[in-house]
Amino acid sequence: MTENFVLVPGAWHGGWAYQAVAAALRSRGHRVFAATSPGLGVNDDPAGLALDECVSALVADIDKLGTDGITLVGHSWGGYVIAGATPVVAARLRRVVFWSAFVPEAGRSLYDEVPPDYQQLFTQLAGASADNTVALPLPVFQGVFMNDADPATAGVVHAQLRPQPYRYFTDAPVNGTAYQDAGVPLSYVLSADDVSLPPGEYGWDRFAGRIGATPISTPGSHESLFTKPAELADALLVAAEVSFASPSS
Global pTM? Predict the structure, then answer.
């Protein structure tokens, strides 16, 4: 069965980050579109943007595709984007997959869901910027986001990241928890070695329970789309309940 995937990246990333995952999915005969949120494109101006603009942009992207039966995937902060869009485009969706992603609760922003040290870091970086954006520090990216790659490789990826509008972190979820009542099945994929949120009170494993899902494990760090793309593609197929096809020759 051919599946239609729409892949939404996390903070600081654009659709380019899914290149290897998309290639793995396409080699199995599936269609893939990787979205880039406003402000995170190479030539975008991130100043003054709000979370609802990301949701509206994703809705517009899905409408332009003109395709139904979509599996919508969101990574990390991208969970807020897919959750906001789901009730609007529910008729076009077959399933929604959160991958190592925030699963929104009504009124709780990403800022509310992260540990105090992240809150302080984001606030400090946004305040020091000229356009109220947060640029992810290289040591943090190397040490806890892409910790399963050598520092030089992580540095190459980090150089491609864009500053994240601060309001994308502080705005309340768009459409609240309406995604849970949209009639679209929800799944959760979790990267097994993801320590970008510390285990325990703030760990990633708390989010699957919000949608009543048992996490599907995939190897790698928070950035396993770079370090374990084929395995991540396989996990997305499991989450989408798509039968595996042999890669095309």
Answer: 0.96
Cβ 8 vs Cβ 32: under 8 Å:
no
What distance separates the 2 farthest-apart alpha carbons in the chain?
A: 51
User: What pLDDT, on a 0 to 100 scale, did the predictor assign at position 243?
Assistant: 53
Does domain 4-239 fall into CATH 3.40.50.1820? yes
Domain ranges of the chain: 4-239
Beta bridge partners of 7: 34, 73
Write out the E strands in the chain: 4-8, 31-34, 70-76, 93-101, 133-134, 164-165, 186-191, 216-218
Give the DSSP letter string of 191-219.
ETT--SS-SSTT-GGGTGGGGT-PPEEES
Compute mean pLDDT per 10 residues along the chain, 249 residues long, and list them.
94 98 97 98 96 98 97 98 98 98 97 98 98 98 98 98 98 98 98 96 96 97 98 97 51
Cβ neighbors of 30 (< 8 A, separation 6 or more) are 2, 3, 4, 5, 242
Cβ 117 vs Cβ 164: under 8 Å: no
Q: Residue 107: is it exposed, middle or buried by C-beta count within 10 angstroms (0-12/13-18/19+)?
A: exposed
